[in-house]
Amino acid sequence: MNPTIELLKSHRSIRKFTDRKIPRELLEELISAGQCAATSNHVQAYSVIHVVNPENRRKIAELAGGQAHVAEASDFLVFCADVKRSTEAAERAGAEVVRGMTEQLVVASVDAALMAQNVAIAAESEGLGLCYVGGIRNNPAEVAEILKLPPHVYPVFGMSLGYPDQSPEVKPRLPLKSILKEDFYDDRQDEEQVAAFDDTMHRYYLERTGGNKESSWSKELAPLFTTKLRPHMREFLNKRGFEMK
Question: 3-170: what fold?
């Protein structure tokens, strides 16, 4: 493997950070690298909020489910899907803009995710650690208010960034054969491959917790599919101007 692939395959979520601060110049380089990600039709439908105010960091940490690293990391970023800038630019250029289309929501969400992943890779290449924070969608309206987000902008996820103060193991991934399919969607071996992966994850959880966690990949999925996860998101997105027409 070349160094880039090795870096990608060594990703871990870091939730404990040292007190060392990321230099401002480096942070801006990371964001600049993020901007070089692919973007649909060059729309660049994202904005990044660098949350500096300690009280706002503390509030967001609680709103995200009590994730202390949001407040404790050197830096905390919120990646937003943003169609405000682009639609207003098109209007100023004389277009009769149609807002609220589902595809606009998809494009902006994908753009924000691609941009963030570039930031993540750039950060890890500099010896930094990070943790994505989807928990900000637990209370997205409150987060949007703290960040003073205008209509047609919504917070997709956050990212805690800093110098790692822990070195967790790399979490196993599904077997390649279960996600790479040739020519058509072939699920004939899915049950067998998932069962094997459940065994792998069972061993991983036991080793990581010193024998205190008996679980598997399939069991860990239960909260995602046995409850109505974040049912408020549809109404929230509608109020943000993402009407999903």
Answer: NADH Oxidase (3.40.109)
According to DSSP, the residues that pair with 46 across neighbouring strands are: 81
Q: What predicted TM-score, i.e. pTM, was given to this entire model?
A: 0.96
- Report the distance separating Cα 131 and Cα 13, nearest Å: 5
117 touches 186 (CB < 8 A): no
The position carrying tokens 């401002």 is 24
Q: Name which of 114, 99, 124, 119 is nearest 242 in CA terms.
A: 99
SS3 155: strand
Burial of 108 (0-12, 13-18, 19+ CB in 10 A): buried
pLDDT tens profile 103-152: 999 999 999 999 999 999 999 999 999 999 999 999 999 999 999 999 99
